[in-house]
Sequence to fold (309 residues):
Amino acid sequence: MSNSTIKGFQCLIALLVLFTTTTAQVKTSDLSIRDPFIFTHIADSTYYLYANERPRIAVYKSKDLGHWEKMGFAFEAPENFWGKQDFWAPDVYAWGKKFYMFTTFSAPGIKRGTSILIGDHPAGPFTPLVNHAATPDSNLCLDGMLYAGKDSQPWLVYCWEWLEVKDGRIMAQRLSRDLKTTKGKPIELLRAGDAPWTGPVKGHNTEGIVTDGPFFHRASNGELLMIWSSFTKGGKYAIGVARSESGELKGPWKHDAEPLNTDDGGHAMLFRDFSGQLRISYHAPNGAPHTRVRIYKVTDVNGKLKIVL
Fold:
């Protein structure tokens, strides 16, 4: 066999390996990812999904929401980055001409908090907007997200963790237009214990009621809804719905009597697919190693949400 023939086979094998590596797909039902957030990117007709792989955030892409291909890493923490632990709940939002990832980090001697990262594309790469948390340094915080109402004022909405305050809270902090600084003091939106369906949990030598994963939806009847997660009185992780009686972020917020689901799942977000169908993504069941990504259609009838299984 000539050298040219051998080189030809080597090139063919290399191409086959590259093709196999870059096109390997995983079914949604096989994805073991907590706190799944899906960004619908109209510009390239692609859905992006993010996953904690500390000290990095992985990114997957899909065309159909049923099969996902791992692209690589949307964020790799530089050596001098303040966050060394957690890498929880990466959420991505378009704001202005950029994309922003809100992710929860902590470090030895530094309380858990949400940092804001910036990138030119929803797949990354993202870099720290500033090298510290946007949530208050004095509080134990997580699951921060971006919200902007009718006035386009950006807010950081986050959870003040139950481990510190017992009755978990959802807070809102006004941000500057460039998202680099906060303005004024945080305001309290709701407490977990006010919802009729929530119950206490025990952990880390304390007992309290959890708030996780707030996300907002302007309903078909104009109501402003917040979905968020906690544990039921029966001990299952679940997705609750709260309604702003003013139609604005500051509320007051009234809780629906029952959660949306019964499958021990939560930390949900809502999005529209490319056909305009409202969908929900979350992880269920809550306990490892069985946790998987769940994506379902959602109906919105006069502001009443229902997951279509």
Q: What stands out?
A: The first strand starts at residue 26 and ends at 27. The radius of gyration is 21 Å.
